[in-house]
Design a protein that fits this description.
Helices cover 43% and strands 18% of the residues. It folds into two domains: 36 residues; 274 residues, DD-peptidase/beta-lactamase superfamily (Beta-lactamase, 3-Layer(aba) Sandwich), CATH 3.40.710. A hairpin with a 3-residue loop joins strand 9 and strand 10. The N and C termini lie far apart (67 Å). By secondary structure, it is α+β, with helices and mostly antiparallel strands. The strands form four sheets. A five-stranded antiparallel sheet has the order 2-1-11-10-9, with helices on both faces. The chain is built from ten helices and eleven strands.
Length: 334
C-alpha cells in the first residue's frame, strides 16, 4: 500500500490526499450516524423479532399436552402447543373463582362459615378445614388461591350474593365476557372434570386477573397461618406453586391444578427475556413436570435452547394425543 509522506507529495498527490481525507471524514460521519441510530433502533428491532419469532420453536421440547406463552406488551402469542384443545383444568378453576369474588365487592373482612353442601364433588375429599368453622372472606380466598383449599373455594361460592347457583352463573358469564369461548364451569373448585377450558382461553383469564392487586398478592403469598373460630384453631398453608419461593422467578400471579383427568396444570404471569408474559401449561405428567416445562420455556426464550423431556413424560403426552385433537379443532374451524 502506498504511504503518504510530506517528502513525496506532488501537486497531484496533494489533490489525492485531500480527496482521501474527505472520504475518511464522510465515512467517519456515516459511522457515527449508524452507530447512534443503531443505539436507538436496535431495541425496537429486537422487540419486534422477539414478538414475531423470538426463537426456533423446534428447539423447544415440553412435556405438557397443551401450552401457550403470550407477550403481555403486545398481546401476541410467542409460542403455543395445542392451545385450542378443550381439557379439564382442575384447580386452575379457582382463579376464576377468585376473580368473581373480588369483582362482587363483598366485605373481605366478613366472617363466613365453611359450607360445602352445594358441592357434591367434595364428597370424600380430605381437608384439614373443619366444616361450619369460620374465617374472614379474605383469608378464605387466600387459602383457596395460595394453597388450593377446596372447602374454602366452595364456601366462597356458597356465600355469594344470590347463592351458589348465582356464583356458578357468574363464573360462566365472566368467561363469556372475557371471550373465553371454549370455557365452561360447573363448580368452583376444579374437582369436576366438566370444568374445562383451553390454553388460549386461560391466557385471557390471566390478563383479567392480573388487573386486581389483591389476586396478585394472594396467589403469590408463600405461606400463611390462619386462625379459624367456632371452634378456635389455627392451620398453616403453603403455596402450591413452589416457583414463588425461587429468587430467580418474578411471579406476578399464579395458580396450579391437578386431577387425574386434567394432569398437572400451571398458569402464571411473570417476566421472561425482560418482558412480561402470560404462561399456561396444561396436562403435564408428573408432580414437577409443569414446573420443569415452565423452566424449559424460559430457557428457550432467553437462550434459544431447552433441556430434554424424560421418556416417561413423552410417552404420557403421546398417549393423551392432544396434538391430534388440536388438528381436529383446526379442521373444524375451516
Amino acid at each position: 500500500m502506498r504511504r503518504f509522506t510530506t517528502q513525496s507529495v506532488t501537486k497531484n498527490g496533494i489533490s489525492n490526499l485531500h480527496e482521501f481525507a474527505r472520504v475518511n471524514i464522510r465515512l467517519s460521519i456515516l459511522s457515527l450516524v449508524f452507530a447512534f441510530s443503531g443505539t436507538l433502533l436496535t431495541p425496537t428491532v429486537n422487540a419486534a423479532e422477539t414478538t414475531a419469532a423470538p426463537r426456533d420453536a423446534s428447539q423447544l421440547k415440553i412435556a405438557s399436552g397443551s401450552a401457550l406463552l403470550m407477550d403481555l406488551q403486545t398481546n401476541k402469542v410467542i409460542y403455543s402447543s395445542n392451545p385450542d384443545v378443550i381439557v379439564p383444568i382442575a384447580s386452575v378453576s379457582k382463579l376464576m373463582t377468585g376473580l368473581v369474588v373480588v369483582e362482587a365487592h363483598q366485605n373481605m373482612d366478613e366472617w363466613i362459615d365453611v359450607d360445602i353442601s352445594h358441592t357434591p364433588e367434595m364428597k370424600g375429599v380430605f381437608s384439614r378445614v373443619k366444616l361450619r368453622s369460620e374465617l374472614p372472606r379474605r383469608e378464605m380466598l387466600l387459602i383457596a388461591l395460595m394453597s388450593s383449599e377446596n372447602r374454602a373455594a366452595a364456601s366462597l361460592a356458597h356465600h355469594y350474593p344470590g347463592g351458589y347457583a348465582a356464583f356458578i352463573a357468574a363464573m360462566n358469564a365472566k368467561a363469556k365476557a372475557l371471550g373465553m369461548t371454549s370455557t365452561h364451569f360447573v363448580e368452583p373448585t376444579g374437582l369436576s372434570e366438566r370444568n374445562v377450558s383451553t390454553a388460549r382461553d386461560l391466557s385471557k383469564l390471566l390478563m383479567a386477573a392480573q388487573k386486581h392487586p389483591i389476586l396478585t398478592e394472594l396467589t403469590t403469598t408463600k405461606e400463611k397461618t390462619v386462625s379459624f373460630r367456632k371452634p378456635n384453631y389455627t392451620l398453616g398453608f403453603r403455596n402450591t406453586d413452589h416457583l414463588v419461593n425461587k429468587a430467580d422467578w418474578d411471579i406476578k400471579i399464579t395458580k396450579t391444578g391437578f386431577t387425574n383427568p386434567a394432569g398437572h396444570c400451571l398458569v402464571l404471569v411473570t417476566r421472561m427475556s425482560n418482558r412480561p408474559v402470560a404462561l399456561v401449561i396444561l396436562d403435564a405428567f408428573g408432580k414437577y413436570t409443569h414446573f420443569a416445562d415452565a423452566s424449559r420455556i424460559r430457557s428457550w426464550m432467553e437462550t434459544g435452547r431447552s433441556t430434554n423431556v424424560p421418556a416417561v413424560a413423552q410417552q404420557y403426552k403421546a398417549e393423551k394425543n392432544l396434538k391430534g385433537r388440536q388438528s381436529g379443532v383446526v379442521e373444524a374451524s375451516k
